[in-house]
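Renewal narrative, Specific Aim 1. Our central claim is that a sequence can be written position by position from structural information alone. The example that follows is taken directly from our test logs and has not been curated for this report. It begins with the structure tokens describing the chain, in the order in which they were read.
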């Protein structure tokens, strides 16, 4: 997940309620665009839409530190701090 996906109309991460059909169209187009310069132009247009319509104003950015015991395997880390634990398991003795 990248930050642009946060603002897609039907994204499960879109907590703002904001939606823009052109933004959604540009995002889908960017996913299919192999040319890096062309893709960057699409991203710039998406950034302009976000800037002009201001669906969110980030006020804070939290840092999260996780201490994971060495016996824990397949612990998923991601920038959204959202995870499915279905593939996590323990090896050896439980802590």
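The sequence written for that structure reads:
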């Amino acid at each position: 997940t990248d930050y642009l996906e946060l603002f897609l109309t039907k994204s499960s991460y879109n907590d703002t309620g904001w939606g823009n059909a052109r933004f959604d169209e540009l995002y889908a187009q960017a996913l299919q665009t192999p040319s890096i310069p062309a893709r960057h132009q699409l991203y710039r247009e998406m950034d302009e839409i976000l800037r002009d319509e201001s669906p969110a104003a980030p006020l804070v950015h939290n840092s999260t530190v996780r201490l994971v015991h060495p016996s824990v395997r397949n612990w998923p880390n991601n920038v959204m701090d959202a995870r499915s634990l279905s593939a996590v398991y323990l090896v050896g003795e439980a802590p």
